[in-house]
Amino acid sequence: MKNTRFLFIIILLAPIQLFAQRVGFIASDIIREKFPEAKQAEQRIRSVVEEWKRELEDMDKRIENLKFEINKNRLIWTEEEKRNKEKELEDLTTQKLTYSRKKFEPGGEYDILVKTIMQPVEEKIYAAVQKVAAENGFDIIWDKSTNPLAYVNYKYDLTLKVLRELGVDVSQMEKELQEKISKDPRNQVKVETPSTQRKKQRTTKKEVQTEKPEEKPIQENPDNKEEEQKK
Length: 231
Hints:
The protein is mainly alpha-helical. The chain has helices at 28-34, 36-73, 79-104, 109-135, 159-165, 171-183, 194-209, 222-230; strands spanning 23-26, 140-143. The protein has a two-stranded parallel ribbon with strand order 1-2.
């Protein structure tokens, strides 16, 4: 739910230098999607909201029918009959607007419903994130569902660890995560084969052979200078 999405930034240890902090990330939307209690809570909210929407749709139909009736009988009704019907239309329109605001305006029944049903679930997720972060030595946990990142190394993805802490079977998802980790070039270790080592040795030898020896400056013989002066 939109109103219950919040940024998971957990600072367990707060060193002054940011580079000294260990940062991981989660995808809270996946956690809510896979966590049964979150799915059940969202279904409860959805059922109530659908009932409210059906009530609003019923009011819309009554308003449209009343408008049609007024237009159809405008010429044959007395002034009093027209006033009564127009007053009825006005009251019904006001009733619909009041009902809609009561349910869906900020701080209304929808927000209260979401908080009441989702807060216990969010607290469980938050506690699981805290525990996973502490056990794995992470100082900051970033939620990429609410704050997308340009690049992430999936070996720092703690989503499945959090789900496992919540009692969710993640065996199938674990395989997918390992594939993502192995495909990342930053996680691929380059192993030197004997052939690559020989190539490096040959390259080093060539560099040594091509190096020019230092040229020493030629020193003039002092006897030659004396002979030239005599001449």
